[in-house]
Amino acid sequence: MTRTVMLFGDSNTHGTMPMVHLSDQGRYARAERWAGRLAAMLPEWEVIAEGQPGRTTVHDDPIEGPHRNGLTVLPALLETHRPVDVVLLMLGTNDLKQRFSVNAGDIALGLEKLVMVIRASGAGPGGTAPGILVVAPPPIEEAGTLGEIFHGGAAKSRTLGARVQAMAERQGLPWLDAGGMIHVSHVDGIHYGPEVHPILAEAFAAAIRRHFP
């Protein structure tokens, strides 16, 4: 029986390429981006990529729009795709934007709120709670066209992994630290170069098989 994993993330789940200009909208091909690679590695799973550029954990974006709030859209997505066996949750990078003025601890608390929503959703098989794999995003750089938007975020991002780890352990959830595996592109300091995607796909496939056999 095919099981379902929903990848709930931001532009780096969407497959956005590093941006030279703010108007850039490049996206890696399905076979190149980690979500597409993961689907190929997990033929026994239906892999649903729900990656939205600019998505935050729990914040309405006053510039890019309230629809970027992950907390707002998550219940609808869980209902849309149910039954969902597992949610791979990788968010927090966009919360580092200067406009939100939140620290790493608050970002982890935002992720924890999303965990609570997933657990209470009844969107798993037979009305159960979906399993959850938490992924801490890698530290960012303040570089290129996105440097000013993320001013002050690089220092916060270097402590985010530990805060996400503490949250996952508090909730009894499996977790991965992407910062221990990959680095962001120096082009814009946020998005991933093509060499990163195979690494993430392999790590996520192994974790899903290990924690949700």
What does this structure look like?
With 213 residues, the protein is α/β, with parallel strands linked by helices. The chain has a single domain (3-211), classed as 3-Layer(aba) Sandwich (Rossmann fold), CATH 3.40.50.1110. It is 35% helix and 13% strand. It has helices spanning 11-14, 34-41, 70-81, 104-120, 153-170, 197-211; strands at 3-9, 45-51, 86-90, 131-136, 175-177. Strands 2-1-3-4-5 form a 5-stranded parallel beta sheet, with helices on both faces. α2 crosses α6 (197-211) and α4 runs parallel beside α5. The longest helix has 18 residues, at 153-170. It is globular, with a radius of gyration of 16 Å.
Summarize model confidence as the mean pLDDT. Answer: 98
Number of domain units: 1
**CATH homology superfamily name:** SGNH hydrolase
Shape: globular
List keywords for this structure.
Rossmann fold, 213 residues, 5 strands, globular, 5-stranded parallel sheet, 35% helix
Question: How are the SSEs placed, and which strands pair?
Answer:
Layout (H helix, E strand, L loop, with lengths): L2 E7 L1 H4 L19 H8 L3 E7 L18 H12 L4 E5 L13 H17 L10 E6 L16 H18 L4 E3 L19 H15 L2
Parallel strand pairs: 1-2, 1-3, 3-4, 4-5
Helix pairs in contact: 2-6, 3-4, 4-5
Question: What's a concise summary of this model?
Answer:
With 213 residues, this protein is an alpha/beta fold.
